[in-house]
Design the sequence.
């Protein structure tokens, strides 16, 4: 399974880099590239992070098998111009340093160089003059998304406090209510930053129970916006909003179940550590959920075996079996 997800990540990485070089999407209609088979660069970044985390989990036993795909995945990840992806891989290296750093420090150092170099190369490709001519390139130093995510997180916390036990239900059930948990000033700021409003005027009902947001333009005219859904860019908050505190606690329990396999540096657990770090600043994408749940089940099963006394291992071998 690990190999399958890594190979799928390689295919996505190749598609992503082709899109960057061509300046247009190849499969999914999008105003931004790269997207490969996803709706946006951020969604693609999550798939690349999962595949790269699984590959890096093999660093203790198979260096070439770990770093060769990681470099390609890192280049594609850099080309998405997201901050969450590199942050997630940085957390993975910190975890590996704590778990196997004393014995495998040379491999870890090489891994940091290969991954960091790949990400920087991807950023350079995305900012190449010929690429920039064909599309707008996101400024990774722009803090706008950090502010909008903070506003959404605040609304989510207020919503959880309002419906703590069972939440709002699955899917986009919170989509018609999220704005109610912001002050008027916060809502106006959010709409200006995230949706390009000129001046937020009011919220009206569309007649079917969904909100329409009114933008007051400079010439005095008004435009109506229907915002079909606002995902909270934090998987723990997102699950708690949907299914209440019970759902949030179940997700947290699943994370805890994978910890024993992470302590023995199972590749699938390292991959889950990478994607869960990513999901603390994003959300689980529909296209990725199948692979995500399979990896999670494998990590949990491995964790149960490890906690039952499987013995200390590093990527399937005892620490003494591999040289530094």
Sequence:
């Amino acid at each position: 399974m690990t190999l399958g997800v890594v190979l799928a990540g390689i295919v996505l990485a190749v598609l992503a880099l082709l899109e960057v070089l061509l300046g247009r999407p190849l499969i999914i209609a999008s105003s931004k590239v790269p997207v490969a088979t996803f709706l946006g660069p951020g969604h693609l970044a999550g798939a690349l992070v999962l595949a790269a985390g699984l590959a890096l989990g093999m660093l203790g036993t198979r260096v070439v098998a770990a770093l060769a795909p990681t470099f390609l995945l890192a280049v594609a990840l850099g080309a998405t111009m997201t901050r969450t992806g590199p942050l997630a891989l940085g957390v993975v290296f910190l975890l590996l340093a704590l778990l196997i750093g004393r014995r495998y420090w040379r491999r870890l150092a090489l891994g940091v160089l290969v991954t960091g170099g790949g990400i920087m190369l991807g950023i350079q490709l995305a900012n190449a003059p010929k690429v920039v001519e064909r599309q707008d390139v996101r400024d990774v130093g722009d803090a706008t998304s950090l502010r909008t995510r903070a506003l959404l997180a605040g609304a989510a916390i207020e919503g959880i406090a309002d419906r703590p036990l069972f939440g709002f239900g699955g899917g986009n059930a919170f989509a018609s209510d999220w704005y109610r948990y912001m002050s008027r000033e916060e809502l106006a700021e959010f709409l200006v930053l995230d949706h390009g409003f000129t001046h937020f005027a009011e919220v009206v009902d569309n007649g079917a129970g969904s909100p329409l947001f009114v933008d007051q333009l400079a010439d005095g005219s008004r435009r109506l916006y229907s915002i079909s859904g606002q995902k909270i860019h934090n998987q723990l908050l997102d699950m708690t909003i949907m299914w209440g505190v019970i759902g949030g606690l179940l997700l947290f329990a699943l994370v805890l179940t994978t910890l024993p396999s992470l302590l023995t540096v199972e590749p699938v657990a390292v991959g889950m550590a990478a994607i869960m770090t990513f999901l603390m600043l994003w959300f689980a994408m529909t296209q990725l959920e199948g692979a995500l749940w399979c990896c999670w089940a494998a990590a949990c099963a491995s964790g149960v075996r490890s906690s039952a006394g499987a013995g200390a291992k590093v990527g399937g071998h005892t620490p003494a079996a591999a040289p530094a």
Remarks:
- The chain has ten helices and three strands.
- Residues 84-126 form the longest helix (43 residues).
- The beta strands are 200-205, 211-216, 222-225.
- The two ends are 27 Å apart (CA to CA).
